[in-house]
NAD(P)H-binding protein
Amino acid sequence: MERAATGEESSGRPTADRVLVTGATGTVGEPLVRKLTDGDASVRLATRNPDDAREQFGEGLEYVEFDLGRPETWGSALADVDRLFLLYPPGSAVSDITEFADAADRVGVEHVAFLSILGAGKLPILPHRRIETHLAGTDLACTFLRASWFAQNLSEIHRAEIVDRNEIYVPAGDGVLSFTDARDVAAVAATVLTDPGHRNRAYDLTGPAALDFHEVAGVFSDVLDRPIEYADPSRLTFARQMYRRGFSPGFVVFMVAEYSVVRLGFSGRTTDDIETLLGRPPRTVREFVADYADEFRA
Ligand SMILES: NC(=O)c1ccc[n+]([C@@H]2O[C@H](COP(=O)([O-])OP(=O)(O)OC[C@H]3O[C@@H](n4cnc5c(N)ncnc54)[C@H](OP(=O)(O)O)[C@@H]3O)[C@@H](O)[C@H]2O)c1
């Protein structure tokens, strides 16, 4: 796999093939669907609950029931599909997704954009890397989107403590993170799925700067105009608190591992791949907090 394409390579006539979006209802999938349907792409939304998805997006789109764990749903999802946005739903079996990729290959899907994780290329133990390796061994043209930690985790996981206690409660020490806005990841996915020139490439998607959580709390305080503190609990205290808040044991272990990596200083790398691909800088954490401010005030 090569690294980022140049703007010249990525510009070209958009194609209007059918795109199957897995994870269509999720953090990246939702803005991706909206972006693709703003253009002239023909989009099919894959979800376990088409009725719920219809409520989310409205009528006039193509919905299909799709569950990675139920191969009987794969055929209608993949029928007449040219391109695929593929994500690994947290907690799914890697074998389900690799078998689904093989099915996509068999029925003639040409191109897959796979949502991966920053650093996956160097971590063969990661499920995302195992999926990348499998995809690279198929006949599918692949684009790997290796994203850093989404700014949206701050609203989806940490909103309650920010709203209720005016604190960001993560055990990350003074470690820095190159927060990516999931809306930028979606915009990149739309670009690579509709413009030529991105096949068999891997992109490292990060925000423009690495911030520690003291700085993040400062941004929240400025934008929301009230003091938000960074709590920095011990990992054990954090794990206990997250269990109490109802997160599953597996997810709590995953979060502790993630924040340990941040704490050790391995999560701060920034790249210019988003700017190269989109022709504009990636969104900052300040823009994210401003855009989602109402959620943090509720
Ligand atoms: N959060 C981060 O900071 C971050 C950073 C880099 C990469 N990633 C990676 O991004 C991926 C998650 O993407 P996301 O955050 O956009 O998703 P998300 O918001 O966590 O939503 C999960 C999506 O997966 C779908 N899903 C769940 N179980 C499924 C199943 N059995 N079969 C088919 N679909 C299923 C859900 O769709 P329905 O409920 O509609 O079926 C939903 O749309 C993960 O692989 C994660 O490791 C996350």
Q: What stands out?
A: Residues 1-15 have pLDDT under 50 and may be disordered.
